[in-house]
Amino acid sequence: xxxxxxxxxxxxxxxxxxxxxxxxxxxxxxxxxxxxxxxxxxxxxxxxxxxxxxxxxxxxxxxxxxxxxxxxxxxxxxxxxxxxxxxxxxxxxxxxxxxxxxxxxxxxxxxxxxxxxxxxxxxxxxxxxxxxxxxxxxxxxxxxxxxxxxxxxxxxxxxxxxxxxxxxxxxxxxxxxxxxxxxxxxxxxxxxxxxxxxxxxxxxxxxxxxxxxxxxxxxxxxxxxxxxxxxxxxxxxxxxxxxxxxxxxxxxxxxxxxxxxxxxxxxxxxxxxxxxxxxxxxxxxxxxxxxxxxxxxxxxxxxxxxxxxxxxxxxxxxxxxxxxxxxxxxxxxxxxxxxxxxxxxxxxxxxxxxxxxxxxxxxxxxxxxxxxxxxxxxxxxxxxxxxxxxxxxxxxxxxxxxxxxxxxxxxxxxxxxxxxxxxxxxxxxxxxxxxxxxxxxxxxxxxxxxxxxxxxxxxxxxxxxxxxxxxxxxxxxxxxxxxxxxxxxxxxxxxxxxxxxxxxxxxxxxxxxxxxxxxxxxxxxxxxxxxxxxxxxxxxxxxxxxxxxxxxxxxxxxxxxxxxxxxxxxxxxxxxxxxxxxxxxxxxxxxxxxxxxxxxxxxxxxxxxxxxxxxxxxxxxxxxxxxxxxxxxxxxxxxxxxxxxxxxxxxxxxxxxxxxxxxxxxxxxxxxxxxxxxxxxxxxxxxxxxxxxxxxxxxxxxxxxxxxxxxxxxxxxxxxxxxxxxxxxxxxxxxxxxxxxxxxxxxxxxxxxxxxxxxxxxxxxxxxxxxxxxxxxxxxxxxxxxxxxxxxxxxxxxx
Amino acid sequence: xxxxxxxxxxxxxxxxxxxxxxxxxxxxxxxxxxxxxxxxxxxxxxxxxxxxxxxxxxxxxxxxxxxxxxxxxxxxxxxxxxxxxxxxxxxxxxxxxxxxxxxxxxxxxxxxxxxxxxxxxxxxxxxxxxxxxxxxxxxxxxxxxxxxxxxxxxxxxxxxxxxxxxxxxxxxxxxxxxxxxxxxxxxxxxxxxxxxxxxxxxxxxxxxxxxxxxxxxxxxxxxxxxxxxxxxxxxxxxxxxxxxxxxxxxxxxxxxxxxxxxxxxxxxxxxxxxxxxxxxxxxxxxx
Lengths: 799, 287
Ligand SMILES: Cc1cc2nc3c(=O)[nH]c(=O)nc-3n(C[C@H](O)[C@H](O)[C@H](O)COP(=O)(O)OP(=O)(O)OC[C@H]3O[C@@H](n4cnc5c(N)ncnc54)[C@H](O)[C@@H]3O)c2cc1C
Known about the structure:
Structural class of chain A: alpha+beta
CATH architecture of the largest domain in chain B: 2-Layer Sandwich
Radius of gyration of chain A: 27 Å
Number of strands of chain B: 14
Radius of gyration of chain B: 19 Å
Oligomer: heterodimer
CATH architecture of the largest domain in chain A: 2-Layer Sandwich
Shape of chain B: globular
Largest interface: A-B, 31 and 26 residues
Low-confidence stretches of chain A: 1-12
Distance between the termini of chain B: 50 Å
Largest sheet of chain A: 7 strands, mixed
CATH topology of the largest domain in chain B: Uridine Diphospho-n-acetylenolpyruvylglucosamine Reductase, domain 3
Helix content of chain B: 25-40%
Bound molecules: flavin-adenine dinucleotide
Number of helices of chain B: 12
Mean pLDDT of chain B: 97
Helix content of chain A: 25-40%
CATH class of the largest domain in chain B: Alpha Beta
Number of strands of chain A: 26
Order of helices and strands of chain B: EHEHEEEHHHHHHEEHEEEEEEEHHH
Number of domains of chain B: 3
CATH topology of the largest domain in chain A: Aldehyde Oxidoreductase, domain 4
Mean pLDDT of chain A: 96
């Protein structure tokens, strides 16, 4: 079931490597990103931001800024309070005021907005806004925040916003019983209990294209046109309309080319609302593009958990129970998903294992920037704790970590529909086969032999592995009752999929989808889906995306959902067009509809390929209805809303080989080997690309990245000088392969792959480093495994 | 990111540049711009005028001048890293240049700019110190020669006066061999040095006749590791001698904790890299 990339060209079948249709334009610099799209008469915004994590604002003096040449306006909360707060999808916690309202709650919070002729003047004027602050004590540490010693918001009873407890859906007393039973198991004879507190540090999502937005209000048409580097154009259109008193169809939001999002652009931001509002006030198009420093301080961050994982198990590797208890950092304000992110972790809280699991994460607010989705969103955190503690347990009982995992997997006979110990029904799974494939393809036994030899030479070679299960393509629509919809943005739309397929009069096809790519290759994948169903060549299928003005309602590109949910809608829409076209072809071929076969850019009669018509010939009669038989409707298009019965549950197993320089603590990642399973694969090259990027970000968390705040709430790693990102030069060539276990919940049998690489990788690398250092007695090192930390852990183990 | 407004001049001759620098309040020289522009965009530095020396001819040469080689003000990191004269006569400096930033940075940034910028964790200062470099600082008043070991005064502070341009760097041809090694902030050899050391040694019949060791990343400024240098001179260059010298790596250095390491860790790393640089330089000298 393994696959390799071969550079073949176009094949229209699903499963073929088709080179990305979008790349020639992007590589040659023809791609149009928000900052490339210019309006006549546009002006620029800049923000005055708080240098304090917590302070009272005594006064804001805007006179000097207003008097500067080229300045159009300076706004504070007094100007925009009537618009209400920034809207959030899951509004648990304190919502963000559009500009700071009396008190600032994190460093970088926007206090004033300046609009000027250009961005340089705007920044000068923003610096000239003088704010008189009275600093207050800030609460940054998660345990400190949970104690409520210092409150972040007077309006809330507690810094604790919500706790997510599993098994999900069980009554509290039943959850307590699961916990108590696991506690009781610890007292048993011949059992081993392993427990470790671990940090899953905060991260700054760094898209190559920073966030950017430009808004143009036309008072004559009463229309608002907004270009934004967003993953969720429809939600943004809804939020702008709801906040500014416009109907959603008066607002057109376009997410043109988007240079990466990773969840950070899965948010409606106050700057997007303010820029739109300012355009209405000033009669000018208004633009704002964030700087890297602003990105670090005001675009959402990810992760930020501290939790204790505990396993109790027998000495021969049977896990009797797993508990996770900890705190997740929500930052100061609740934005789009904020408090729901740990909930996504709970979905996979027991991984692909069968042991009883008790799980509790407290979501607390702190005086830091907001956290929200970042590639994997809750699931990398959940996988990290589980897969780290399983490794520690395996080491404790002296059993191979691969063996321990296999022994505790949910068995195949439970699928499809296995219900995980944390209470979720899963689609399909075959975990043992997947791990076996990794063991085989990596020559695991050979690696262990190599490690033995290295140890004899005094070298610290480590092998780490991890398996993971992911949940993505969140569905069904009923999850809307838990907040999974855009209702709070004025668009009561659940997380279902949409796709509109049209065969044009010349026989080409156009697909319109409400979601848009931020690097995932929708233009190619969707063309393949349509091409597979209609036999129109991929080159003749144009995919239009990310424009609320001309697409069906779209939810967005996030949670590895596009192919499984929107792709399925497009598949079904293609089927409908095909059924209609079959009638027309039958008429032209003078054959019966059942005998029409679509192939090679047209249709022919089964068994006699010479008796054929092209798509152009079919389209001609579709758009010249007088040529159609009596009673047949013209046109060749269909739009479908697809509501899957469940999310999809991809899985996989990863292995890393590292060498550690014990003298300096430096970690060298030597090999990275994966066997992922995302069900059927539409385009193997695109899937591999997603895995590549995902691993890079997981390795980034394991080795490099950390949003580090000091105790007063200053972000110490707010520039890319101090926040190192992994580059190609830091990473080995990834060795990827796959098993294929199709899902049963959508017609193509596809699951998601956008986040898998990230969910599987951070713990794989940490497991490898700890394995390398095991001879020195090191049991755990918190991420990121910067040399100083690794060295420190070695010193502590030495005692 | 958006710097404050500034004037920009691009003189065609060094004399014009020196005059402009002398006469313009708050002016700064810009060469590769790799460090200066970042600071300006963060608005941490806002010079009123930039004097771009990038269009002055003949500053982009590495020259062979009998008893020394001269590296001009516009020689890039990339050129220092790969030129036959530097790789032979200033191996440590060339190695340091090859590990400075990435390809783009090495194609724009200059060796003299890196030295003038005097970052506490920059690579090439250690190489310049070990190689016994002499800095030629020129102003309207004439030339001044400054030994590399005296050039790095404090964090981001060199011995240059505001009206001086570092026009070239001279490396004496003293024989012997040199090497540089570091732990980069990103791990391995990439990015600024968490700690790095360069060593130059000249051996004579199995004895280390002369040596210099430059240290970067650990203190308030790159500096000569005087204790380690003293310890290795006159020794037999054996593993024991290297270890003894490394023990004295931070003698006289105020080790500073930063995001990349505690005082204890940096002190340890200084010893590790002094030893590694010495090992490599001695191995080259022997071969
Ligand atoms: C992404 C990135 C990564 C980097 N990584 C590293 C690294 O790993 N190791 C490392 O050591 N450095 C690193 N650097 C810094 C790099 O080495 C810079 O190029 C160097 O510090 C400055 O050289 P420049 O020619 O660009 O000088 P500029 O940026 O133009 O100037 C820097 C300062 O020196 C002054 N100056 C420049 N030239 C002269 C002169 N001839 N006479 C007098 N004053 C002068 C300027 O006025 C300014 O104050 C990195 C930089 C970047 C952007």
